[in-house]
Each structure stands twice: as structure tokens, then as C-alpha cells.
Design goal:
- The chain has six helices and eleven strands.
- The protein has 215 residues and is an alpha/beta fold.
- The strands form three sheets. It has a seven-stranded mixed β-sheet with strand order 3-2-1-4-5-6-7, with helices on both faces.
- The two termini are 22 Å apart.
- It has two domains: 103 residues, Formyl transferase, N-terminal domain (Rossmann fold); 93 residues, 3-Layer(aba) Sandwich (Rossmann fold).
- The structure holds glycinamide ribonucleotide.
Length: 215
């Protein structure tokens, strides 16, 4: 099996990047991380990549006059590393429609809510303010509108009366680290098909030819 090459875009701590790095370490995992790009120099995730000898680059959006020019610089670097699939992992910049189109159905994002509820950069705050009893996280294909696109997998967590931003974020992150490697595995194995806003997950075949239910 030829492993798919992954480019991971980050802006911060990179705990989801870490989960992907750890998943990729397994011999039977169908993907490997070829490059990590951060738009922020201070992103701790860059250290995580370097510790694992993964090429890590900073492309600061402030150095580019337009969103398109910034996205072009990222695209060039992704091409240089022969990337097949892009994973947004806490990447907090909107991408231009042209970039999104280039990576149509080959670019994933993880968001800390049950989309389409609670889009945006303050999902946990909004969840706590709303009084909902459950939250969670979503891995989805990226479309030009923020935090939208066909849903691949979600995980649900309870919202507890005593929750703070920190306790809720920690509970959700634990699930993010579980579902992101799972969604990437499915995509890398060619098991996802998209029809409109719906994603079908094909079963995998076990060594004896039996079908394994994806979930
Ligand atoms: C994660 O909770 C991720 O879902 C969220 O940022 C955090 C990054 O954490 N992403 C978004 O809000 C995107 N809209 P990490 O840097 O530790 O992976």
C-alpha cells in the first residue's frame, strides 16, 4: 500500500496534529505527514512537527497583500512536498475559494462543535451561553464558507452544569483526537464518496474478505 502524503495546516498548539502524527506512526496507517505549515511563528505545533523530523514551515499571512497570494504560497509548498490530502488542524484563517477548489474533496477540517451548529472561532463559549446539553466535534470536507461542508464523522459529549470553557474544550478535544485520525484513514483508503452534502463511508474488507462496518 502506497501511503498518501498529508500536509497539515496549523495556527496554534497542534494537539490534533499530534494525534495525526501518532496515528501515522502505525505501520498499517494509510497516510504519512509530509509537511506542516503554520501561519503563526509562535505556534507550538511547529515544535511537535520538528520533534518528529517533519518539515515545518511558517508562512505568515501578514507578509502577503492578499488572501489569494498567501494561499498560493501555501499551495506551492504543498505541491513541492507532493501532498495528496490537506488537513486543517486548528488553522484559523479563511481560505480563498480558488484554494478550496484546488483541494476539493481532498481537504479536511476539524471543528469543536456539532456542525452546522456553533460555527466560528468561539464555539465553546457559544455552546455554554446557549444552554444546550450536548456538544461535540465534527470532521468535514472543506467548502468556501467557513465551517461548512459535507460531514464525515462526529462525536458527541455532554455539556455539564459546572463546565467552564476549559473543561468543555478538554472533553471535546479528547474526542477530536479520536475522530480526526479515523476520518483521515477513511479518506486515505479511498472509502469516502461525496454526493451533495452527504458523505458515504464504504466498508473495509478484512483479510478474510469479510466486510468491516466503518463505525
Ligand atoms: C481545536 O479544538 C479545533 O477543533 C479548533 O481549534 C482547536 C485547535 O487545537 N478549530 C477550529 O475552531 C476551526 N474552526 P489544536 O491546535 O490543539 O489542535
Amino acid at each position: 500500500m502506497k501511503k498518501k502524503k498529508i500536509g497539515v495546516l496549523i495556527s496554534g498548539g497542534g494537539s490534533n496534529l499530534q494525534a495525526l502524527i501518532e496515528a501515522c506512526a502505525a505501520a498499517d496507517y494509510p497516510a504519512e505527514i509530509s509537511v506542516v505549515i503554520s501561519n503563526k511563528e509562535s505556534a507550538y505545533g511547529l515544535n511537535r512537527a520538528r520533534e518528529h523530523h517533519i518539515p515545518a514551515h511558517i508562512i505568515n499571512h501578514k507578509d502577503y497583500e492578499t488572501r489569494e497570494a498567501f494561499d498560493d504560497a501555501m499551495h506551492t509548498l504543498l505541491m513541492h512536498h507532493q501532498v495528496d490530502i490537506v488537513c486543517l488542524a486548528g488553522f484559523m484563517r479563511l481560505l480563498s475559494p480558488a484554494f478550496v477548489k484546488r483541494w476539493q474533496d481532498r481537504m479536511l477540517n476539524i471543528h469543536p462543535s456539532l456542525l452546522p451548529a456553533f460555527k466560528g472561532a468561539h464555539a465553546h463559549e457559544d455552546v455554554l451561553a446557549s444552554g444546550v446539553r450536548f456538544s461535540g466535534c465534527t470532521v468535514h470536507f472543506v467548502r468556501p464558507e467557513m465551517d461548512s461542508g459535507p460531514v464525515i464523522v462526529q462525536a458527541v459529549v455532554p455539556v455539564l452544569p459546572q463546565d467552564t470553557l476549559e473543561t468543555l474544550a478538554a472533553r471535546v478535544l479528547e474526542q477530536e483526537h479520536r475522530i480526526y485520525p479515523l476520518a483521515l484513514r477513511w479518506l486515505a483508503e479511498g472509502r469516502l464518496s461525496v454526493s451533495g452534502n452527504k458523505v458515504m463511508v464504504k466498508s473495509a474488507k478484512a483479510a478474510d474478505g469479510a466486510l468491516i462496518n466503518p463505525l
